[in-house]
Amino acid sequence: MFKFEREQKVFQIGNVTVGGQPGEYPTVMMGSIFYSKDKLVKDPVKGEFDRKTAEGLLNMEAELSEKTGLPRIVDVLGETSEALCKYIDFIADCTDSPFLIDSTSPTVRIEALKHVEEVGLIDRAIYNSIDENIKENEIEALKSSKIKSVVILLFSSKYIMPKDRLKMIKDNEKNLIRIAEEAGLENILIDPGVLDVPSISWTADIIFRIKQETGYPAGCAPANAMYMWLRKKKLESPLFEACGANILSLPIMMGANFIIYGPIKNASWVYPACATINAMIAYYARTLGITPKTKNHPLYKIF
Questions:
Q1: Is 187 helix (H, G, I), strand (E, B) or coil?
Q2: Is the pLDDT of residue 204 over 70?
Q3: What was the pLDDT predicted at 171?
């Protein structure tokens, strides 16, 4: 366990604080909802879904967030702009949490971004994400909006090794931090990307390097790799949760400020696991002169 030499940036996004030294602010949990093949979704094109069950899952996660001291941001995914806008409106009505504008389609993200601004939710929104493939129309959409928060994805076939991944946010032909800043984005979160479960060790190393060299909040989304592996191995409870807890904890040990942990329905075991590692890190951090900057911290909640 350690203290970063570089001063660490801290951002306030809605009612959530993200960033800082290990032990200062708890890891922000990002659970996904309305993802592809989510059983909640009845029509992924029109955005029709099971509202009662979705609200129950959101309330369950909110209770766990309060109980453990881990803040949350809702990862809202959509396959079409119509669907994503409906989902975002629902999340905004059911929670006071920030949310990710998330889709595999830049066009869908851009249309949802316009909607978010029109309905006055821009201060709670995080654009997820921009990467090396960003086109001029997406840059212009970000510039013309009032959004201030974004996730930068450092995933590239050109830069696989940990030592090379930071080249995407340094001075080169496409410096993603510079692109974000020139578009008016201020709250920049950096995600190194995940290849598969074994490579999460690389991702954790890159998170450390990002924070050590830039001070920006960093984290990752182990969810897709984790669930593909667990399904392939056909692991059942409690092996599923035991392996998953280790997978999520490693990046946190290396300084991750946020974790996209996958389906919200798994919050029941994800939150206790990640709260425990947060509490242990904060306990040790006191020997380095670091104390939690919030009373609503796992160190005070679970021990």
A1: strand
A2: yes
A3: 66
C-alpha 113/C-alpha 107 separation (Å) is 10
Strand-pairing partners, residue 268, are none
Contact 169, 176 (CB under 8 A): yes
100 close to 76: Cβ distance less than 8 angstroms:
yes
Question: 10 Å Cβ neighbour count for 20?
Answer: 23
E strand spans, 180-295: 187-191, 219-220, 258-263
Mean pLDDT of the residues in the chain: 95
Rounded (10°) angle between helices 267-285 and 239-253: 40
Tokens representing 179 are 């692109």
| Fold of the domain spanning 10-301 | TIM Barrel (3.20.20)
Most confident stretch, 44-58, 157-171, 212-226:
44-58
What sign has the CA pseudo-torsion 274, 275, 278, 279? Answer: negative
Average pLDDT over residues 136-141: 96
Does pLDDT of 18 surpass 80? yes
Burial of 39 (0-12, 13-18, 19+ CB in 10 A): exposed
User: Which residues pair with residue 21 across a beta bridge?
Assistant: none
